[in-house]
Amino acid sequence: MVVKKVGILGATGTVGQRFLTLLSDHPNFEVAVLGASARSAGKSYKEATKWKQSVPMSKKVTDMIVKSCDAKEFAQCDIVFSGLDSDFAGEIEKNLRDANIPVLSNAKNYRRTPNVPLVVPTVNTEHLDVLKSQRKENNLDRGCIITNSNCSTAAVVVPLKALQDAFGPIDKVSVVSMQAISGAGYPGVPCLDMLDNVVPYISGEEDKIEWETRKILGGVNESQSAFELNDTVVSAQCNRVPVIDGHLMCISVKFAKANPSVSDVHKALNDYVCEAQKLDCHSAPKQAIVVFDESCPDRPQPRLDRENQNGYAVSVGRIRPDSIFDVKFVSLVHNTVLGAAGAGILNAEVAVKKGLL
Amino acid sequence: MVVKKVGILGATGTVGQRFLTLLSDHPNFEVAVLGASARSAGKSYKEATKWKQSVPMSKKVTDMIVKSCDAKEFAQCDIVFSGLDSDFAGEIEKNLRDANIPVLSNAKNYRRTPNVPLVVPTVNTEHLDVLKSQRKENNLDRGCIITNSNCSTAAVVVPLKALQDAFGPIDKVSVVSMQAISGAGYPGVPCLDMLDNVVPYISGEEDKIEWETRKILGGVNESQSAFELNDTVVSAQCNRVPVIDGHLMCISVKFAKANPSVSDVHKALNDYVCEAQKLDCHSAPKQAIVVFDESCPDRPQPRLDRENQNGYAVSVGRIRPDSIFDVKFVSLVHNTVLGAAGAGILNAEVAVKKGLL
Amino acid sequence: MVVKKVGILGATGTVGQRFLTLLSDHPNFEVAVLGASARSAGKSYKEATKWKQSVPMSKKVTDMIVKSCDAKEFAQCDIVFSGLDSDFAGEIEKNLRDANIPVLSNAKNYRRTPNVPLVVPTVNTEHLDVLKSQRKENNLDRGCIITNSNCSTAAVVVPLKALQDAFGPIDKVSVVSMQAISGAGYPGVPCLDMLDNVVPYISGEEDKIEWETRKILGGVNESQSAFELNDTVVSAQCNRVPVIDGHLMCISVKFAKANPSVSDVHKALNDYVCEAQKLDCHSAPKQAIVVFDESCPDRPQPRLDRENQNGYAVSVGRIRPDSIFDVKFVSLVHNTVLGAAGAGILNAEVAVKKGLL
Amino acid sequence: MVVKKVGILGATGTVGQRFLTLLSDHPNFEVAVLGASARSAGKSYKEATKWKQSVPMSKKVTDMIVKSCDAKEFAQCDIVFSGLDSDFAGEIEKNLRDANIPVLSNAKNYRRTPNVPLVVPTVNTEHLDVLKSQRKENNLDRGCIITNSNCSTAAVVVPLKALQDAFGPIDKVSVVSMQAISGAGYPGVPCLDMLDNVVPYISGEEDKIEWETRKILGGVNESQSAFELNDTVVSAQCNRVPVIDGHLMCISVKFAKANPSVSDVHKALNDYVCEAQKLDCHSAPKQAIVVFDESCPDRPQPRLDRENQNGYAVSVGRIRPDSIFDVKFVSLVHNTVLGAAGAGILNAEVAVKKGLL
Q1: Residue B32 neighbours by CB distance under 10 Å
Q2: Who among D54, D196, D306 is closest to A303 (CB)?
Q3: Which residue of chain B is at minimal alpha-carbon distance from C296?
Q4: Could you tell me which of B269, B330, B341 has the C-alpha nearest to residue B300?
Q5: Would you state the pLDDT for residue C291?
Q6: How far apart, in Å, do the first and last CA atoms of chain C sit?
Q7: ipTM of this predicted complex?
Q8: Mean per-residue pLDDT, C114-124
Q9: In 3D, which of B91, B93, B99 has the Cα closest to residue B72?
Q10: A336 with A309: CB under 8 angstroms?
Q11: What digits encode the pLDDT tens for the residues B195-237?
Q12: Is B127 a catalytic residue?
């Protein structure tokens, strides 16, 4: 594959740092432009950034000069990844698209736009086909916006997709999350709120899980110009816990028709293969879902399992029958890899393989 | 009220330490005997104990000599509180009862015995009336066993009782818990399992919540000699989180017939008054349920709210309609007060007021 | 003692909250005015405050209307406690003093002013006598500024004072601190910086310990108009650790002349009695220094010992000879009680007893 | 280099797990035998082990059958790494040596034996030459024992060696440590002791730092048959903090003669090159000491810097003059890599390169 020049919007932030970590030795994507706020523009990346990753900053970017997020700074880029906060993402990302630059956004601003794909790369990359319609509407040949899901949604839709594929429509899903602090960025959650504590509230988060799940698991209209929500009823309760990375979810599922056994569910999750794997994308996990059986009743755990498949897998365990729903289980996602920066990267890899970028 | 002499079984353990903390200035219960394992017997309490409470050991017990848990050591006691581990509680507590000594146990061993009351003191103290039948069967005039619930069950049944009283039978309850480490005793949970982590499994815990809830919210047979489970279907998922004290639960409730509004639910919880309050017991909370409204969307939190009403209240917040069940909310209990030692103490206070001890 | 009307500057902040917690049932100080920023002024205290204490807000203050920090709002106050950040404390506290109101400040702004007492209440309350000179210079009969030390300094000077009293001048002191996050206020330290981590740097803190120790342990000039630093060389290294409350310090001491044994040191610390105790002040600890002997080699610990003597004691343990200095030990202070709000309150109690307020 | 067959003693423990993680893709060392307690022997490694590493167990070892620690089980091994607890290491390691098998031990048992090298691989690999004398005394041609230091000692001796090389003898060193919980193994430190807490005591640890530093920085007698301690006076105070991996130390140094500037010290640390680097060993760090300058005043930090150079570097920061000693700084070691398993591996690599294994 030819090497693509990529830019990063919001490069100094938490998601931006994760983009750079994941791209530091990527064979096909070469970091060419780093964009950040006016305050950072003009400084070296090292000067501009409070680096909070547990692996050192890559040598390559250390001395790169940070640019503003103006579209013209990114003119040379084949692809731009955005880790911008939603306060700024709306306008900046639109400007880049209008300048005919493809943008893969981690922000919430365009997720609900009917012709913008909302894609978790191990779930619904076929939704990328709507890009043709999006470009046509905007009279662009390259420029487009692709969004990835909220970090917590990813932990839900990956196993649900495998189950929907195997057992048909899902009627109801109850989700209780225990979410890592990195999801709130930096400085993010004050330590006084998290030490010896749990906070049973994350503003806006429950609605995102409930809505995004239905778009991601849903379909496309006949003209391939807009997405249609599926009918699954999702109820979410979100909690913040003192964990660095890794959102853990307790999920209960009721199917519309099927009532598979625990071993059926185990097999369906374990056997699930996504398009990114079939296309042999560089960052695609070997297992999209890592399943723990009864011999490991206390897994997955954030600290031990978030790095499974380099953070691109969702880990599932404790599959058991439920007295109210049909089945319940625990699901874990690396919230800044598959739940954020990694989603953008793998979405881009798939889109490139499919000739869409 | 006359002063009662009380003994503590398992006085050196985590629950035993909490008993002593709560009894240190109790007007009616005077600590007379401390019992622990053979290893500790004969030592001063200070020598025998790794004190882990955040308030200092009371002067009074510091130099008391620890006894074994033989029934004869407790002959002088009017009441004995047991913080014994279930490995030992079965035989020791039975021996004391057979020696005609009333035992209030925190262990699971007798909770499911048909004629042993399983009592959360702000929920079902009327169940204590079965003691008459228990004593009769055993040919005893004083000796008896009273159990309190598992720590996590308490967070569930207090709000459910208020709702059942107000809106009639509850059809289904889904519970996801985030439980404190003090629930596992000392040494208990290794720090390597808890730092930057959540463990989505606590052995035996889910079954306890599911079963105990039905006994506590259930009734008594006609002859007042055995308990009958109620019909509520309870599904529980339990997680251990890095919190010292305070179990937080996400609870979803479907009523059999009613479908009260959020403000109805808020009012029913807020107005709930239990028998321990009506009897004006020393340790009874002024509010059995502390309710947070929409102005505090991120409460209750373990670190900030576990001490509400000295740990004898359950705190509830985030009451909202649910798309699958009728209503969902967050509930917090101080797991070593109302969920353990405090339950025994307040149960004893009620039993004394009712002439049963 | 007559009841004094007190005001709080910065009442909504972390230190302000602690002032209110400590004053909630104080027999001599009645909270009359709460001052905070313009943003909070006009709101009820409950509305204006993100309460982060683990005990509930006292009923009394819940509905008090927060005022601005203008001097005229505090005209009725006999005493004003300031928990203001140093960015604002300088001007506001001076304005109050100039309006003839006594201010007890927790901020650093006036600590180094030659005629302003810098007082740790269990160490050097005799320094309060300089208030006469301060008032004279300012032509005031009541208005004055009294400061208390930085939170970490308190853990150092309490044991050093006892040792200096017993064994004469101290030549050198090496201090390494492990400090709680509450010392940085709210929101303060981001959780991403503290979970699974230690931060070996607190801006400005080392200099404060090194300088303030010398003023607090030093003397007053002949005319009682200015303080003189003592000659002890202090070297400090400060670290932030994931602890809510309680600064723990490793301290090594070399005396100028004496070389007392471990048991001499133990006795000197244990026997130490401060003026606040002799004057029988309400908040004075019964033991100014709680000493742990070899039977407790792992104490003091922040979580278990910070509440010793309601947070007004310093706890010392692990006293042992040192191969470089003479003796080394571990010292713990409750940083928001004796290290902040409690210092102001107990300083005020002493000053009242001495007729200075 | 030819591939060596290696065995692991104590393979199921915390240090054993780290050995396997570090060896999972090692080009020269092939894991051939896993030894553990009788309880584990006969089981597959997966069955026998509670895996606590944040990277998955390597496929290769998952199904290997665990052996006992009898010498005969390790007959095929060229090298045996021991992660045994000191309770068992003494006899087992001796038995292997007597069976002519080279053992690299992480336990304390033989560290003080005069003819056993105590080696930190980036400090004193020239001490390995004493193996000849050790073998001669025991009439062995291959069998020998090599020890590595206590985990906390490593953080001290690496910078001290660089300073001693550059500025001559060191007179006095004061060390205060903040040590990670992984140093205590599994289950190790109870979470109730560590959450919201620091424990200012680690049994035996201070003496190890004080003594081992002097052997590692010392010399060998004329006949190359025994080590001689150097004269540096070391005073250590050890604390346990809630950190998973990474021991952080505050170190103050007084030289016997020199008094280098901060920039001299910075340069000496930064320029330091050890024998393992010169021999181009596989695991040798590119920088033995990673130095942070004044632009990063809050580094090193355990979570952000412990993985520097894959855990084989020591990171140093906050170099500044000291008013009592000459210079002070902060030092960080990955306690289970350079401070434990990694030390054994890199020591073995050096010994192989030097023809000693």
Answers
A1: 17
A2: D54
A3: B50
A4: B330
A5: 97
A6: 12
A7: 0.95
A8: 97
A9: B99
A10: no
A11: 999 999 999 999 999 999 999 999 999 888 899 999 999 999 9
A12: no
CB < 8 Å to B308, chain C: 56
- Alpha helices (runs of H) in C204-261, residue ranges in sequence order: 205-216
Kindly tell me the burial class for residue D190, based on how many C-beta atoms sit within 10 Å of its own C-beta (0-12, 13-18, 19 or more). Answer: buried
Q: C129 vs A289, B200, C227, C355, CA distance in Å? A: 73, 61, 11, 10
At C20 the pLDDT is 97
> Helix-strand-coil percent breakdown of chain B, rounded to 5?
35, 20, 45
Is D181–B195 a contact, with Cβ atoms under 8 angstroms apart?
yes
Q: For chain A, which domains are there? A: 4-150+340-353 (3.40.50.720), 151-334 (3.30.360.10)
The pLDDT value given to residue B2 = 82
Cβ contact, residue pair D174, C174, below 8 Å:
yes
Which pLDDT tens digit goes with each residue over B280-329?
A: 999 999 999 999 998 899 999 999 999 999 999 999 999 999 999 999 99
Q: Which residues of D touch A53 (CB under 8 A)?
A: 304
Closest by Cβ to A190, choosing from C187, C196, C243: C187
pLDDT at residue B1 tops 80: no
How far is B313 from C330, CA to CA, in rounded Å? 38
B248-280 pLDDT, tens digit each? 999 999 999 999 999 999 999 999 999 999 999
Contacts of C276 (CB under 8 A, 6+ apart): C121, C122, C125, C283, C284, C288, C346, C349, C350
Q: Which of D193, D244, D323 sits opposite C235 (nearest CB)?
A: D323
3-state secondary structure of B328: strand
Please tell me which chains touch D, using 3 or more CB pairs under 8 Å as the contact test.
A, B, C
Residues of chain D with pLDDT under 70: 1
Q: Which residues of B touch A323 (CB under 8 A)?
A: 210, 233-235
Nearest chain A alpha carbon to B198? A301
Q: How far is C234 from chain D (nearest CA, A)?
A: 7
Q: Residue C56: is its pLDDT beyond 90?
A: no
A178–B241 C-beta distance less than 8 A? yes
> Measuring CA to CA, which residue among B318, B51, B332 is closest to residue B179?
B332
Per-residue model confidence as pLDDT tens digits over A256-284? 999 999 999 999 999 999 999 999 999 99
**Cα distance between residue A54 and residue A182, in whole Å:** 12
CA distance C313 to C285: 6
User: What tokens appear for B38 in the block?
Assistant: 């053979």
Question: What Rg value do the Cα atoms of chain A yield, rounded?
Answer: 19
The dihedral sign for the CA sequence A253, A257, A263, A265: negative
